[in-house]
């Protein structure tokens, strides 16, 4: 549920319960604030959860104000304090569960070594974002990158050195891309990127810029290597067939490998009007041209 809708639902629930509790004070509806506090903590986070807990504690004792002056202010304060401690304790427990849930969810979606999205999560993100992009007429750049001669690092320096390169590359890649871009590890030394773009021209520019920056990142690792990248421009009219698109961009990357590595090749995914499968829309772009 979006945050705005969650706030509306919680405020509506608190208001309705406060009115019911005021009209029927002898029924004892105050414990029903606990599920609302739980929902606020789970959906809105710590600050909002504790705020709702305090407000609920105050509203829970408001019906007892009618008992004044027969009810001493000290007793009324004690009741409010008990409510506040109880609701606060419930909020703390729920927030602890929420943090554990978020941590496990994050770890389940990530590659443990590089903290990039794992292969399955990247695939799910690709399918989801492509489906949402249809009504918005959104274009994308889908790229697959492979480190050149990475096995040589493992053979010469050991797997510890190779892992160090992968972690350094992933850290640099996350700093290179934008917040709205997706970055995942789909193989041993293969990584994938999904970037929303406004046009084919912007996609070509991003593809070249991405390869240039990632090449710089790799050049700065303890064991410098180059990279080969295939990039596929996905227009709004392209069929959203995830396996075909991944296969097409993979073939673009392997075309770079066969042609000498250390370059980027940019292709265009054909639309229904093209009556074909995704193919390159331009010749191979050598690394010098990307600079």
TrEMBL record:
Residues 138-269 form the GGDEF domain. The keyword Transmembrane helix applies. One of its GO terms (biological process) is cell adhesion involved in single-species biofilm formation. InterPro entries: Diguanylate_Cyclase, GGDEF_dom, Nucleotide_cyclase, Rev_trsase/Diguanyl_cyclase. One of its GO terms (cellular component) is plasma membrane. Its EC number is 2.7.7.65. The keyword Transmembrane applies. SMART domains: GGDEF. Keywords: Membrane, Plasmid, Transmembrane, Transmembrane helix. It holds the Pfam family GGDEF. GO terms for molecular function: diguanylate cyclase activity. The chain crosses the membrane at residues 32-62, 74-97. It catalyses: 2 GTP = 3',3'-c-di-GMP + 2 diphosphate. PANTHER family: DIGUANYLATE CYCLASE DGCM-RELATED, REGULATORY COMPONENTS OF SENSORY TRANSDUCTION SYSTEM. This is diguanylate cyclase.
């Amino acid at each position: 549920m979006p945050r705005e809708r969650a706030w509306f639902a919680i405020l509506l629930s608190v208001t309705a319960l406060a009115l019911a509790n005021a009209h029927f004070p002898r029924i004892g509806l105050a414990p029903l604030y606990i599920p609302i506090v739980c929902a606020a903590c789970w959906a809105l986070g710590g600050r909002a959860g504790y705020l709702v807990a305090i407000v609920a504690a105050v509203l829970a004792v408001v019906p007892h104000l009618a008992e004044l002056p027969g009810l001493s202010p000290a007793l009324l304060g004690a009741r409010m304090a008990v409510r506040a401690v109880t609701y606060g304790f419930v909020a703390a427990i729920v927030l602890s569960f929420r943090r554990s849930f978020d941590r496990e969810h994050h770890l389940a979606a990530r590659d443990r070594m590089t903290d990039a999205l794992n292969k399955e999560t990247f695939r799910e993100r690709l399918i989801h974002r492509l489906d949402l992009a249809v009504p918005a007429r959104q274009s994308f750049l889908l790229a697959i990158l492979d480190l050149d001669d990475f096995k040589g690092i493992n053979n010469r320096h050991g797997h510890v050195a190779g892992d160090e390169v992968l972690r350094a590359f992933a850290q640099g890649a996350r700093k290179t891309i934008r917040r709205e871009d997706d970055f995942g590890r789909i193989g041993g030394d293969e990584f994938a990127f999904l970037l929303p773009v406004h046009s084919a021209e912007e996609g070509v520019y991003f593809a070249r810029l991405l390869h240039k920056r990632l090449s710089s990142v790799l050049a700065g690792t303890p064991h410098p290597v180059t990279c080969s990248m295939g990039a596929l421009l996905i227009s709004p009219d392209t069929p959203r067939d995830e396996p075909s698109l991944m296969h097409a961009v993979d073939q673009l990357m392997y075309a770079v490998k066969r042609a000498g590595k250390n370059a980027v090749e940019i292709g265009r995914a054909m639309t229904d009007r093209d009556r074909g499968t995704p193919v390159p829309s331009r010749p191979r772009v050598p690394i010098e041209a990307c600079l």
